[in-house]
Amino acid sequence: MNYTFDDLKKDVADGRIDTVLACQVDMQGRLMGKRFQAEYFIESAYKETHSCNYLLATDMEMETVPGYKSTSWEKGYGDYTMKPDLSTLRRVPWLEGTALVLCDVLDHHTHDEVPHSPRAILKKQVARLEAMGMKAYMASELEFFLFDQTYDDARMSGYRDLQLASGYNEDYHIFQTTKEEDVMRAIRKGLQGAGIPVENSKGEASAGQEEINVRYADALTMADRHAIIKNACKEIAWSRGKAITFLAKWHYNAAGSSSHIHQSLWTSDGKTPLFFDENGEHGMSSTMKHYMAGLLAHASEITYFLAPYINSYKRFMAGTFAPTKAIWSKDNRTAGYRLCGEDTKAIRVECRVGGSDLNPYLAMAALLAAGIDGIEKRMELEPAFTGDAYGAQGVREIPRTLRAATAALSGSAMLRAAFGDAVVDHYVRAAEWEQEEYDRKVTDWEVARGFERA
User: Fold this and answer.
1) pLDDT score of 389
2) Whether the Cβ atoms of residue 154 and residue 234 lie closer than 8 Å to each other
3) How far apart are CA 169 and CA 428, in angstroms?
4) In which band, very low, low, confident or very high, does the pLDDT at 333 lie, cut at 50, 70 and 90?
5) What b/e readout covers 297-314, taking b as 16+ CB neighbours within 10 angstroms?
6) How far apart are CA 199 and CA 188, in angstroms?
7) Distance between terminal CA atoms of the chain?
8) What whole-number distance in Å separates Cα of residue 420 and Cα of residue 253?
9) pTM tops 0.70
10) Among 81, 119, 176, 352, which is least packed, fewest CB within 10 Å?
């Protein structure tokens, strides 16, 4: 569906649309912005609006985090310009009389894109590929847990005794997911109506766990879709008295929730697959081998953008279908990087490292930067791993903690060259703050373990 500005004008004139959401994507991948009266949006705000620059310098709880060079209390927390990208304009069927548009974030004075804004970071890597005559196509598989309580009920209970929407493992289970169809059908229909082509939904590997899959697209379009999907899932569940969490690991006894990212490169016109060589091993071209070699060479450095929180690292547990080793293998779900679609034009690499809590723009940008480095340096791809990667010894491991991933990010010459020092330093500070906040908190586990025994 191609919903245009002219379509919006007609809908406003006919009384079908009265509100336009103008949204930027924050560091956590959330939609932040304003609800415009539709008449004002089509008169003026379609050109630009403004937001406080602290939106790209806060944590999950919107704290004004100290230590950022881009903004601070000392600098006064000024404005950024939000410029609607009208190619992202769409109706929002699950909200009455509402349309939505995503915005690029610009410097208030120069009107240059803010370098550390997630959309700008991904667009920079897309532009690098374009200069090489290439185009990246990606798809993200997004998992989450569905609960019978509302968000308010869950919060008031201290997030204890939560009731999952199902009582047992529902992986591919039709009868069990039929019980949840009220919410999942609304999600599928809502996304489809918003111009996001849905492939399917399915039950996943734990009680109450779901997955939504949409059609692949160019990298920026897919990241835009991903951000909208997460917001839509929460809003639709909320409207039905339910709650959804995209925590990577909501409970010790449950599987983690992932966001696997499928990647392939094509010619800039999108007609010729650059990863496919009918004479290559498994159908892999030399370009694909170099790209995958880059992913593996920089696996530790890009992990932060795939696992950005303390909780993210609780997901990496053996025997849970979440990877623990940053290796590649052919159609092997124990490996961090899986070769899919071998010997066909659909050949691609699936990164299984990312959790459902990732920011899609940052994750995709980091993967592209690593792959581009592999292509530019013609890196040699190591042999494929075979067998159970969980028990493998002496192979590359995924960083076990946020602290380790932060150190790898900070020391990454590749990412500093691809993103710029200031951008990397910005996200290093975000990671440091997450760790600092966790380190000073007292958890329920500590109290229960030591209240009497310590």
Assistant:
1) 87
2) no
3) 37
4) confident
5) bbbbbbbbbbbbbbbbbb
6) 9
7) 61
8) 40
9) yes
10) 176
